[in-house]
Amino acid sequence: MKDSDCEKTIQTMGWADLREMWDKIQKGSATGWDSGKAFEYLVPRAFQLDGARIKWPYRISLHEEIVEQIDGVVEAAGLHCLLESKDWSKPISIDPIAILRNQLLWRPAATIGIVFSRSGYTEAALLLAGYLGGQTILLWHPGEITLALTKEKIVPLLAAKYRACVESGIHDANTEYMGVL
User: Fold this and answer.
1) What's the pTM value of the predicted model, to 2 decimals?
2) Residue 174 near residue 141 (C-beta atoms within 8 A)
3) Helix (H/G/I), strand (E/B), else coil: 76
4) Which domains are present in the chain?
5) Do 128 and 94 contact (CB within 8 A), yes or no?
6) Cβ distance 179 to 147 under 8 Å?
7) What gap in Å lies between CA 10 and CA 148, rounded to an integer?
8) Which of 67, 69, 87, 117 is the most exposed place for a label (fewest CB within 10 A)?
9) Cα dihedral 110, 116, 120, 122 sign
């Protein structure tokens, strides 16, 4: 499916549709979508439904070479965020987080990164995410995605995760247990 078709399809979906899609993604059976694309489009759509300004996944080219693939951009709760969505069956390692950190290096310092994972993170990734230097990257756990889709609110969770990172330096604060919603 072309990117423009992905955008048209996902924009017809409401919260109930996203919950159903999330269930299929978790089972590895999001039929009709290229590998990883359903999750890549689900995340910005959830933010859009909650009132955030979004930019759909896109590529940046330099001299006819693709130099970046961005899974979306969100502007919400006073934050500007680059998205990274990983639809992997195993917990993700530090590699995608490090790539996102590098993408943040040539953006305004206030830009943060958000990584969404359907399978969680390795212990090493969770540990190393706290040592990324000046780039803030927030890690979202599968249960938080379920919570956001169930409660039909994702922006308050983003604000709570960011606040926890500012107050405690925790990049993977799990909002499932924070009583935000």
Assistant:
1) 0.95
2) yes
3) strand
4) 3-177 (3.40.1350.10)
5) yes
6) no
7) 17
8) 67
9) negative
